[in-house]
Amino acid sequence: LVHALGKPWSVWQAQHLFFVAKFTSCIEYLPGASNAVADVLSRDFQAAMAVYVPNTISIDVFAQEQSKCSKVRQLLQSTSLKIASRNLPSGLTLLTDLSTANPRILVTRSLCD
Question: What is the pTM of this model?
Answer without folding.
Answer: 0.49
